[in-house]
């Protein structure tokens, strides 16, 4: 599925109801002017030495070294590569008896276009995103022509993504109830082939997963978690197509999920396992029931409210939600608290020692500055007295 993850944030699903292929062209493109010649792997490829006259001997080189005769046959100065394979790619050059270059060609080998796998999906009611993959890797430069038609209308352009050549978008599909036929034509130097895919709009509706999913403990309720999330950014909130949601959750150690439905952007889980971290995910679906559920949102972790331990001085902690990764999911609260105490103590000790070092440094520098200052004063005093002495000397 990885190759299809090209529509933003979507893993794509579609029904391909029809697939038709008509090979349009299938011959070797030999362009005399261009330096590149394309050939089909497995076929006999003929390389022409344009200046070859009959009778006059020519020499062929591949990447600068003489072509072995086991590799190919010479015919009227032309080189024929039998049963070509990808190891025969490279720069071919044809030289006369004196070694003068007559013609140089870069040979690239691959396959002609074949049927594509097309997947279309609608992350909302206002666009259809189609993407496609090669069933056969062609190894050759490839372009795509993407069109679509619905009902008996003329075909229109499916707008291709500038950066990803295997994605196109149908903007504002006009009729949600009719079917669309998407036509993707693959073109490469060995020919072109088109693939058709028939889609029913309402079948391919699949929202992106809900976003900003969060959970918080409910104070005083060790078996409850309150959940919040938002519409996926790709699903217009103001649209007349609301979403419904499912929340699945389980204690971290557990295998089986519990599921609850929701139609709003919040819900309260009422039967979570007290004192345990839970894994929670949310997914969305068109409220009208068209299409599929979204993928699940990425997992979040949450801990329900913990009852304070009997120890009187250590209450009032861990009442808040914990959504960060924590390992001591099954350890008791008192252990967590004593760990916290240790951390505080360690922090104090390190702060104290840091302060000591700082004070010592401060004292050292103060003494240093004082000593230097004193020294300067001394010298300037000496200078002054000597100058006065000199002045008082009779010139
Ligand atoms: C390729 O050339 C070989 C030897 O000349 C011949 O036997 C074979 O039939 C040719 N293959 C094709 C596909 O033309
Ligand atoms: C060489 O070319 C001449 C005409 O230019 C032709 O009559 C002759 O048959 C050719 N010889 C070969 C071996 O192809
Ligand atoms: C093949 O030709 C191209 C273009 O002339 C050149 O850049 C490249 O280095 C050549 N490769 C080899 C292996 O000779
Ligand atoms: C010729 O050089 C190309 C790179 O330009 C390389 O990919 C190819 O494998 C070389 N062919 C041979 C037969 O060494
Ligand atoms: C699909 O598109 C190609 C290229 O635009 C075109 O040649 C072909 O006729 C189309 N096929 C159908 C069935 O519309
Ligand atoms: C999407 O829904 C269709 C039917 O509406 C179903 O056949 C298909 O398996 C679903 N795909 C996924 C990935 O759930």
TrEMBL record:
InterPro entries: CD47_Vset, FN3_dom, FN3_sf, Hematopoietin_rcpt_L_F3_CS, Ig-like_dom, Ig-like_dom_sf, Ig-like_fold, IL11/IL27_subunit_beta. Residues 209-305 form the Fibronectin type-III domain. The chain crosses the membrane at residues 345-371. Pfam families: V-set_CD47. It comes from the Eukaryota. Residues 8-94 form the Ig-like domain. Keywords: Glycoprotein, Immunoglobulin domain, Membrane, Receptor, Repeat, Signal, Transmembrane, Transmembrane helix. PROSITE patterns: FN3 (PS50853), HEMATOPO_REC_L_F3 (PS01354), IG_LIKE (PS50835). Residues 307-336 are annotated as: Disordered. Residues 317-333 have a biased composition (Low complexity). Residues 1-26 form the signal peptide. Belongs to the type I cytokine receptor family. Type 3 subfamily. This is Interleukin-11 receptor subunit alpha isoform X1.
């Amino acid at each position: 599925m990885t190759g299809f993850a090209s529509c933003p944030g979507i893993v794509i699903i579609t029904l391909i109801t029809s697939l038709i292929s008509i090979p349009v062209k299938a011959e070797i493109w030999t362009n005399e002017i261009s330096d590149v010649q394309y050939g089909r792997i497995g076929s006999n490829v003929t390389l022409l030495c344009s200046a070859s006259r009959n009778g006059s001997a020519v020499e062929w080189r591949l990447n600068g070294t003489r072509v072995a005769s086991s590799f190919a046959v010479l015919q009227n100065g032309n080189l024929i590569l039998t049963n070509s394979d990808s190891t025969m790619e490279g720069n071919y050059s044809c030289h006369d008896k004196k070694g003068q270059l007559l013609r140089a060609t870069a040979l690239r080998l691959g396959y002609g276009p074949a049927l594509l796998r097309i997947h279309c999906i609608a992350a909302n009611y206002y666009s259809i995103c189609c993407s496609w993959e090669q069933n056969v890797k062609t190894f050759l430069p490839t372009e795509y022509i993407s069109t679509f038609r619905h009902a008996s209308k003329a075909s229109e352009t499916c707008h291709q993504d500038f950066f990803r050549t295997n994605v196109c978008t149908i903007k504002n599909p006009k009729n949600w109830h009719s079917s669309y036929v998407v036509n993707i034509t693959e073109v490469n130097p060995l020919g072109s082939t088109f693939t058709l895919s028939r889609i029913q709009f309402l079948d391919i509706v699949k929202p992106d997963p809900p976003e900003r999913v969060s959970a918080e403990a409910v104070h005083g309720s060790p078996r409850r978690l309150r959940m919040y999330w938002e519409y996926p950014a790709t699903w217009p909130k103001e649209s007349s197509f609301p979403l419904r949601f499912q929340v699945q959750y389980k204690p971290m150690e557990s295998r089986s999920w519990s599921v609850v439905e929701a139609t709003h952007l919040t819900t309260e889980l009422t039967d979570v396992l007290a004192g345990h971290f839970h894994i929670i995910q949310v997914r969305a679906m068109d409220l009208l029931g068209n299409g599929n559920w979204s993928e699940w949102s990425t997992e979040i972790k949450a801990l329900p409210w913990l009852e304070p331990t009997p120890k009187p001085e250590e209450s009032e902690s861990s009442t808040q939600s914990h959504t960060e990764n924590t390992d001591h999911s099954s350890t008791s609260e008192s252990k967590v608290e004593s760990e916290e105490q240790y951390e505080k103590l360690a922090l104090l000790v390190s702060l104290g020692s840091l302060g000591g070092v700082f004070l010592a440094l401060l004292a050292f520098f103060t003494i240093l500055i004082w000593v230097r200052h004193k020294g300067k004063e001394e010298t300037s005093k000496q200078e002054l007295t000597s100058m006065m002495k000199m002045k008082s000397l009779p010139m």
